[in-house]
Design a protein that fits this description.
This protein is mainly α. Helices cover 33% and strands 0% of the residues.
């Protein structure tokens, strides 16, 4: 029985690990992300209105989830725009 070999990833530009961004909310000891703080939430959405990835924002998993919920609530209250179509 032949063992399956997985294809190796080639190291390309940007695949070498850099320094991980520290979470802004953990640094400031923020317990809950507020959906009414629109200026803070604008950092976490793109110019097209889409929520940015946690790798890009540097937020930890817990706070990234809170940011996503806060952005969705702010959109519902018409404080932030919904993402434009593709």
């Amino acid at each position: 029985m032949a063992a399956k070999t997985q294809p190796r990833k080639r190291p390309g530009p940007g695949t070498t690990g850099g320094r991980r961004k520290s979470c802004y909310f953990c640094k400031d000891k923020v317990v809950e992300v507020d959906y009414k703080n629109v200026n803070q939430l604008r950092r976490y959405i793109s110019e097209r209105g889409r929520i940015r990835n946690g790798r890009i924002t540097g937020a930890c998993r817990r706070h990234q989830r809170q940011v996503a919920v806060a952005v969705k609530r702010a959109r519902e209250m018409a404080l932030l725009p919904y993402g434009q179509g593709s």
